[in-house]
Amino acid sequence: MDTKKKILDVALTLFSEKGYGNVFVGHIAEGVGIKAPSLYKHYKSKQDIFEAILEEMRNRYDKEAAYLNISGNDSVLDADTFARISEDELVKIGMGLFHFFLHDEYECKFRKMLTIEQFSNGELAQILSHQYIDEPLKYQTGLFQMILMQGQMKKKEERIMALQFYSPIYLLLTLCDREPQREDEALQLLVKHIRQFNRMYKE
Predict the structure, then answer these.
(1) Fewer CB within 10 Å: C terminus or N terminus of the chain?
(2) Helix axis angle, 105-117 relative to 158-178, nearest 10°?
(3) Count of CA atoms in the C-beta half-sphere (13 A) of 84
C-alpha cells in the first residue's frame, strides 16, 4: 500500500475510534510508522487529510453507483432508469446501496466519526446532516418529481414521498451501526419496505 493511502486509512480509523478532535497529526504519523515531517510531504494538515478522505468516499460511492447502473447523484439522469425498472430491480439497487453504506470501510468509519463528534463539533454535525439527510432527501425529491412528471407514480407531494422512502432506510442503517448482529433482520425489513412503497405509489 502506498504511503498516501495508508495515511488516509490510519487517520480514518483513528478518527472513528477517538473522534476527530482527539487525533493529531503526530498520532496519524505514528500509526503509519513515519515521522510527522514525512507525513507533511503528502498532506499539509489534518484538514487536508480530512478533505482527501471525503474525496475517496465520493470516488467509492460513484464506483458503486455505476456498478448499479445509476449515477446516484443526478436525479434527472436517474429518473428514466427508476421509472422503467421492475420491483425486483428496485430492490436490488436498494439492497446494493444499503450494503455499500453499511460495509464500505470508509463509509462506516466516517459515519461513526461524525456520530461521535456531532454534539461537540458543529461543523462535523453539519456534515453528518448534509451527507446522510439533506443530500439523500434532495436527490430523492428530485427523482420522485421527475417520475411524477412522467406519470409513472401516483401524484403526491414529492418531498414527503422522499421522506417516507428514505427515513426507514436511514433508521435501519443506524440500527445496524449500533447492533451489527441485527443486519439480517434489517435487510428483511428493507426489502419489505421497498416493495410496499413501490406498490403504494406505482401507477
Answers:
(1) N
(2) 90
(3) 7
Residue type, 151: G
Which amino acid is located at 124 in the chain?
Answer: L
pLDDT tens digits, residue range 176-187?
Answer: 999 999 999 999
Q: 105-120 burial, b if ≥16 CB within 10 A, otherwise e?
A: ebbbbbbbbbbbbeee
The confidence score (pLDDT) of residue 47 equals: 95
- Grid coordinates 458543529 are at which residue? 122
202 DSSP assignment: B
Rounded to two decimals, what is the model's pTM? 0.90
Contacts of 11 (CB under 8 A, 6+ apart): 23, 28, 31, 46, 49, 50, 53
- CA-CA distance, 31 to 11, in Å (whole number)? 8
First to last CA, the chain: 51
Q: Is 153 helix (H, G, I), strand (E, B) or coil?
A: strand
In the three-class reduction of DSSP (H, G, I as helix; E, B as strand; rest coil), residue 149 is classed as helix
For helices 105-117 and 87-103, angle between their N-to-C axes, nearest 10 degrees: 60
